[in-house]
Amino acid sequence: MMAWFSRKKRRLKAKLSWKSKKKDSSPSGNWQPEDDSDEGKIVFFGGSNYTFDLDDLLAASAEILGRSASGSTYKVAVDDTATVVVKRLEEVVVGRREFEQTMEIVGRIKHENVAELKAYYFSKNDKLAVYSYYSKGNLFEMLHGENRVLLDWESRLRIVIGAARGLAVIHEADYRKLVHGNIKSSNIFIDSQGKGCICDLGLTSITRSRPQASIRSSGYHAPEVTDTRKCTQFSDVYSFGVVLLELLTGKSPASPLLSGEDNMDLGSWIRSVVSKEWTGEVFDVELMKQISIEEEMVEMLRIGLACVELKPQDRPHAAEVVKMVQDVRTIA
């Protein structure tokens, strides 16, 4: 059930002043939106059991977590009763109606492997999306961050299976028309049970698309997306396959991989190595320290390569990917 509440903005400009613990890259150093005469509303999903409203949210202390093409992301603690992630969306290219329709589609998705959209806010000058907060952080940080975590094979399997389930649920939504459009390891968060959860759903379709060069250099997008910048469910599967290969190799897709004199994407590099019967060379050295998992890793590698096939029609559907990764091993 969805409950929504319109909250009158009382001098909104004065309240939107989160001072981050990390330096914000915005010119003012904190969040100071323009005064907005267009009265907005905050819309909550999941019932009326929230103990905070818009004024509480905007007055709360916040820590900036980062910036992306879609906007700035904050960790917000509201009166010690809740911790949420708030995205202040930038480059929104749709009007109020389409924005609200997209948010309502996302807000109806309730699944343990999809980050919950708790609320959204729309006004002329500011658009917010409020999500669940995951204290364990995201997969990219675990694999490549300054405080990287040594993930064993069982942990990686839990993350893969959870994220695959989340993607399949997303693809079933909106009469099987919903597309994420930006699957990558930094958009897969880890829940308290160590399972992968997909976040940032719904943002690709309402914000300005990134330049072609940026899409190509990310390493996650399917070849057809770099040409047309149009995402599909099959391009989501490609991106998920890149994440799967990233988990297996420990390599970031954004880093150029050398093979002879040519720079290669992650999938092409793996195919090149495997063709020379050096399959063991592609796996993360941390995984190679474990025993009795080689067959499982090789099978997962096969699934990842199937997901990154160059032709969209040759890739499996997300529901098929779930079955394949679950069949690698059953994790309790």
From TrEMBL:
InterPro entries: At_inactive_RLKs (IPR050994), Kinase-like_dom_sf (IPR011009), Prot_kinase_dom (IPR000719). GO terms for molecular function: ATP binding; protein kinase activity. Residues 59-329 form the Protein kinase domain. Residues 15-35 are annotated as: Disordered. This is Probably inactive receptor-like protein kinase At5g41680. Keywords: ATP-binding, Nucleotide-binding. Gene3D superfamilies: Phosphorylase Kinase, domain 1, Transferase(Phosphotransferase) domain 1. It holds the Pfam family Pkinase. SUPFAM superfamilies: Protein kinase-like (PK-like). It comes from Raphanus sativus (Radish). The keyword Nucleotide-binding applies. It comes from the Eukaryota. Coiled coil: none annotated.
